[in-house]
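Customer ticket, subject: "Can you confirm the structure for Large ribosomal subunit protein bL25?"

Message body: Hello, I'm evaluating your service for our small team and ran a test protein. I'd like someone to confirm that this is what the system normally returns, since I don't have a reference to compare against.
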Amino acid sequence: MSSNGGSIQLTAQPRTEKKGSALRGLRLKGRIPAVVYGSELEGTPVHVDAKEFNKVVRTGRSEVFNLTVEGGEAIPVIIKDYQQRDNQWLHADFLKISKNKPLRVRVSIDYQGTPVGTKTGGILQIQETEVEVEGLPADLPSTIEVDVSALDVGDKLSASDLKLPKGVTLHVPEEELLASIIVPRAVEVENAAIAGDAAATEGTVASENKES
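Agent reply: Thanks for trying us out. I re-ran your input and got the following:
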């Protein structure tokens, strides 16, 4: 992988191997079996260097970069999908894109800050780490930042609370739950027990006062 004028470049080699044993052999050599497809481009089997691919993944799945299949021209693509197991890349899908056509992708959510509710025993429970959005490739963010520091116990964060860049639209229900501040079950049980003891004590005192 290289960077040319701020544009990330990744080189791929044509792939003829399709059987499981051959694909495992590629992975043992530090290569990742992949497919390139998209508008006016049939699915083309290729393989890329695992270490270089890892660097591209870090920029985000919505980041457009140039993929050059050995012997051909560089084409703008995004990482449409990938499979990973036990920290090993198994397969990747590269989608050729048009810079003038809207693109629908899943973008990572970057939760920032320490929720105020966690300081009083609450726990930040994250339901979603990605959200689907649509926009022109140049407008798509690599991640969507959201500040959760104001969340208190019982508060919830929904998809509608996300602030998207201009020209980017949400493609999940606005009410979809992304994160919330919950009370641990053990704390709930303890609080219920304390409340029960307090109620019992009040009842005993009231009974004694009545008898006297």
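A couple of notes from the result: The first strand starts at residue 2 and ends at 4. The chain has two domains: 2-97, 104-183. Feel free to reply with more questions.
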